[in-house]
Amino acid sequence: MNWSIRQPDEPDSEEMRTVYAEQLNAMANEDERIVVLDADLMKAHGTLAFKKAHPERAFDLGVAEANMVGVSAGLSTVGFIPFPATFSCFAARRAFDQFFISANYARQNVKLTGSDPGVSAAFNGGTHMSFEDVGLMRTIPGIVICEPSDPHSLRRLLPQIAYRQGSSYLRLHRKPTQVIYHQSEEFELGRGKVIADGEDLAIIAVGAIMVAEAIEAARRLLNEAVSAAVIDMHTIKPIDEALVIEYAGRTGAILTAENHQVRNGLGSAVAEVITDHHPVPMIRVGVQDEFGEVGTQEYLQQRYGLTADNLVVQAHRLLERKNAHATRKIHARSTV
Amino acid sequence: MNRDDLRKLRRKAAEIRRLTVEEIAHLGIGHVGGSMSIVEILVLLYYRHLKIDPARPKLETRDKFVMSKGHAGPALYAVLADRGFFPRALLQTLNQGGTNLPSHCDMNRTPGIDMTTGSLGQGLSAAVGIALGHRLKRLPGRVFALIGDGDTNEGQTWEAAMSAAMFGLGNLVAFTDYNKMQIDGPIEEIMKTDRLLDRWTSFGWHTQQVPGHDFVLLDEALQRALGEQHRPSMIIADTIKGKDLPGIEGDYNNHNMPLGEEQAEMLIALLKKKEEALT
Q: Which pLDDT value is given to residue A215?
């Protein structure tokens, strides 16, 4: 098993928002087209530092997300690369039509960031808990959707998002986040990252919470002599079809893990690839048909089953199905 | 504006109305009313004020125009074709499959369109973004926007209004095509927008209200608006939906209406007569 991973002398966690703001700032130092917009959450996104460094290129629109996205589209038409940000619940629910029409349908270059995804909204509770944002965004033609799992991958992916023509949705876990990757790791937008190889099943996970839980689940499974591959599918759209097909073929069992509804998120995206190209048994771990609620992130992860514990349980269920599937296939062959 | 200028503008307005009716009549249905009410505003901008070069529609330094009431595309297409952004023959393709002239304005299909619009309320935000961009790049081009009664119902328009004033966008001039009709009826019965001037004034804009089919008064208002350096300007133009089309003018049912061959021929003949009288 080949664990790619942070060295002991590197920090074990970093605030994603700090990395986000620092990287935007670094890009803006080199490129006058980079502008930052926010809807009264610059403090939350760490971009007050950007505003200090580039006051003329930071726009706070107040609590008006629809206008923020529309203004971003206007800036894009005259050549800027705008990064508007708000909580993911508002980015997707509140400004969806503006993002759909003024940014995407108009083929503009609006790099929308939605922060505090899913249960990471914690004490803000159900009103602020986005379990549907990826689902909404995924139906926009041609869009790029990216959810980095750790500070280092965010740092590497952000410039690629900036310079890939077209609008995008960055699902940003902004709070202190476990460092997963070694500083030398490279990432490519649209290409999933294989963290650990495995033979019995593949856990395809996304985001800061579920990639870390998937790694932990794979470690526990290894102790039970189950070899699970772990893939960080940081780009949900366009999904890395080739990688999904490869691991469906290699392991014959796919487990997806996301801090989002299982409907129309990563699990659905992977299921579409599997169904079209290489049907194998599959289980999607994520939030079921439910709204969010208030609590600590730890409580909410337990509440919705977004834990390594649940991934291990589901992995065993999946392996049973895989074995039953294999037995059926052998039986079918012998009766021909 | 001298008398000759005025006569030419009025003739051009009649011609644009005729071209728009021909365009819509070719398909037999379209957004007639709201196209007719904005003709003087468009003609004043595109034939007297906008710094544009039809041969170079993407020129960075030129003035920009955002048609927030995107459904009035047909009137703007007539103007753009006449100004030479694309051949007039294209007007006959309005709303046909594969056309570059869709019912609602599309910047990726039609040369000279500066922003894609159609979902009401979104145009002014885009215009604010363009005006901010021009200021950041120190571009000389001014930014013009045209909104309608429907846009005025949308909350986003007022978000945009707040931000334009907050950012002191002296390079932004907006018009309201205040024809006082919406799809379901007169605004009085559907959604009142009375004291509209006061509303914009209270949002921190430089405001004026003028008769929207009077070139002289519109032009004077525009000159004053262009003199504003540190705040956005709103010119509320009192207009008539379906203006200059007998039998259609002033009827709220003219928003999106069928236009039969016989009716179209009658209207085209009338408008032609008007053009000739102004020659």
A: 97
Q: Which site among A32, A61, A63, A67 would you substitute to test the B interface, given the most B Cβ atoms closer than 10 Å to its Cβ?
A: A67
Q: In this complex, do A71 and B114 lie within 8 Å of one another by their Cβ atoms?
A: no
Q: Does residue B133 sit at the A interface (CB-CB below 8 Å)?
A: yes
Tokens at B100, concatenated:
């570059």
Question: Helix or strand or coil: residue A112?
Answer: strand
Alpha carbon of A111: minimum distance to chain B alpha carbons (Å):
14
| Interface confidence (ipTM) of the complex | 0.96
Residues A137, A274 within the same domain: no
Task: Characterize B115-147 residue by residue with b for buried, 16 or more Cβ atoms within 10 angstroms of its Cβ, and e for exposed.
Answer: bbbbbbbbbbbbbbbbbbbbbbbebebbbbbbb
Distance between CA A30 and CA A44 in Å, rounded?
25
Whether A249 and chain B come into contact, CB under 8 Å, resolves to no
- Put simply, the answer to whether A78 touches B118 (Cβ < 8 Å) is no
Q: Which domain holds residue A294?
A: 193-335
Write out pLDDT tens, residues B95-125: 999 999 999 999 999 999 999 999 999 999 9
Q: Are residues A229 and A116 in the same domain?
A: no
Q: Which residue has better confidence, A336 or A156?
A: A156
Strands (E), A181-333: 193-196, 201-205, 228-232, 235-237, 254-261, 282-287
Radius of gyration of chain A (CA): 20
Strand A228-232 vs strand A201-205: parallel, antiparallel, or unpaired?
parallel
- Put simply, whether B108 touches A (Cβ < 8 Å) is yes
Alpha carbon distances (Å) from A104 to A142, B43, B116: 8, 31, 10
Kindly state whether residue A183 falls inside one of the protein's structural domains. no
Looking at the complex, does the CB of residue A86 fall below 8 Å from at least one CB of chain B? Answer: no
Query: Which CATH number is B71's domain given?
Result: 3.40.50.970
Q: What CA–CA distances, in Å, run from A238 to A73, A121, A186?
A: 22, 26, 18
Residue A133 in tokens: 């944002």
B117, B132, B166 member nearest A75 (Cβ): B132
pLDDT averaged over every residue in chain B: 96
pLDDT of residue A1: 45
